[in-house]
Design a protein that fits this description.
heterodimer; A: alpha+beta; Uridine Diphospho-n-acetylenolpyruvylglucosamine Reductase, domain 3; Enolase-like, domain 1; 35% helix; B: alpha+beta; Ubiquitin-like (UB roll); DNA polymerase, domain 1; five-stranded mixed beta sheet; binds FE2/S2 (inorganic) cluster
Chain lengths: 288, 160
């Protein structure tokens, strides 16, 4: 068996060059999916290109433009960052739900997105916050919206030689907030039966002027649910509006039966979590 | 096969070793450096037996490549005690008899130290959530949690 090389480039350009020179190399961020997949008999890469020595890939910057999140930044840093938590509490709470403290010390939000699990926690908050994925590759950099990044279970839009370098989240408008909720059979160390992320913007009289709703684990990929958002927009986020949003979420859910839950149960929970996450986001937006 | 030469700091001392590109930190510690306090339970990031601190951060040693620790600092269970006295977490585990077979214990101690470094006064619930990634098949966790909360109280007293 051929030995796997280990490379730790110091810049994005160097990482791109290494990837270009070796199509069988894999980018290594926290390794919490990649190393396990390799050991479980997945395709053996020729090299691990560790991107954690590239300063901008393990960095969190919040400024007037919004959030610049290095793709390999550990989840533990994302959930602990005060500025990030203040403006994107839903993203921070999703990051704090991934695996154990040990896993959060390694696993990254970028890796969570690239791994493209339908049940992943952080893609939905990224989607409702209109995150843009910055992809580095042989042709330079290109961007893709978070909702278009995952193409099917375990698959993303990265082409040969490309990797996810970072995520850009625009600064939320005033009186905007997000929330993320998920249901798991156990209270810790489990994978979502359903996850729901909601972002809402209120005007000065408390009327919802903009909303985004995304669901996890109810379809082959995370899904944006425009109908649920429309049910909230133009309303004071009263119980009737929340019920309509829940109904839209149930209608949009295309879940599967598995050991974590049945189709009917997942549909029901998609509605409940949408409603609750919307109420939390609304409460937070009032405080902003 | 070309080996990678790694220079790092382990438990406060400079250390160097050779590894392959896919060796984990866990294997390097146990098999190359004979630091067998760090245990292997699952090697898939699920059990916490391999917990170590990398630049002070709690990580699973089985999901860190050995080559990654070049120039970093690693702390294992062998390094948490003072020269002459046990770490308060270690002492509390003894006092509470918070172990049976002991395979999970080093991981719990390292994770508990990381908790108390970050939060000197955790609630029971905070301690239980923080330690959710450390599995114990023997004790039922109760004595472990008591030991961690005792250690927290001792450490607060010591710094008061
Ligand atoms: S051996 Fe690393 S988490 Fe189980
Ligand atoms: S004491 Fe045996 S696994 Fe914890």
């Amino acid at each position: 068996m051929q030995a796997i090389r280990y490379e730790a480039p110091g810049s994005v350009d160097d990482a791109v060059r290494l990837m270009q020179a070796d199509p069988e190399a894999r980018v290594l961020a926290g390794g919490t999916d990649l190393l396990i997949q390799c050991r479980a008999g997945g395709r053996r890469p020729t090299a691990f290109i560790d991107i954690k020595r590239i300063p901008e890939l393990v960095d969190i910057t919040v400024d007037a433009q919004g959030l610049r999140l290095g793709a390999a930044t550990p989840a533990a840093d994302v959930s602990a960052d005060e500025h990030l938590r203040q403006r994107w509490p839903g993203l921070a709470e999703a990051a704090a739900l991934i695996g154990s403290m040990q896993i959060q010390g390694r696993g990254s939000v970028g890796g969570n997105l690239c791994n493209a699990s339908p049940a992943a926690d952080t893609p939905c908050p990224l989607i409702v916050n209109r995150a843009v994925c910055v992809i580095a590759g042989p042709q330079g950099r290109r961007t893709v919206e978070a909702e278009d990044f995952i193409s099917s279970p375990g698959q993303n839009v990265l082409g040969s030689g490309e990797f996810l370098a970072g995520l850009l989240l625009p600064l939320p408008a005033p009186s905007t907030a997000d929330a993320y909720l998920r249901l798991t059979p156990r209270s810790e160390m489990d994978i979502a039966v359903v996850g729901a992320a909601v972002s809402v913007t209120l005007d000065h009289s408390g009327i919802c002027t903009a909303a985004r709703v995304a669901l996890a684990a109810v379809a082959p990929t995370p899904v944006l649910v425009p109908d649920a958002a429309h049910a909230l927009i133009g309303t004071p986020m009263d119980p009737a509006a929340l019920d309509r949003a829940a109904e839209a979420a149930r209608a949009a859910a295309r879940p599967i039966d598995d050991k974590r839950g049945t189709v009917a149960y997942r549909r029901q929970v998609a509605g409940v979590l949408t409603k609750r996450a919307a109420a939390i986001a609304c409460e937070r937006a009032r405080g902003n | 096969m070309s080996r990678i030469h790694v220079e790092t700091t382990i438990n406060g001392e400079p250390a160097e070793f050779l590894c392959s590109g896919e060796d984990t930190l866990l294997t390097a510690l146990r098999d190359t450096l004979s630091l067998t306090g760090t245990k292997e339970g699952c090697s898939t990031g699920d059990c916490g037996a391999c917990s170590v601190l990398l630049d002070g951060r709690l990580v699973p040693g089985c999901l860190v490549l050995a080559a990654e620790v070049e120039g970093r600092t690693v702390t294992t269970v062998e390094g948490i005690a003072d020269r002459d006295s046990l770490h308060p977490v270690q002492q509390a585990f003894l006092n509470q008899a918070a172990l049976q077979c002991g395979i999970c214990t080093p991981g719990f101690m390292v994770a508990a130290k990381a908790l108390l470094d970050a939060n000197p006064d955790p609630t029971e619930q905070e301690a239980r959530y923080w330690l959710a990634g450390n599995l114990c098949r023997c004790t039922g966790y109760d004595k472990i949690i008591r030991a961690v909360l005792d250690a927290a109280a001792d450490m607060r007293k010591a710094t008061a």
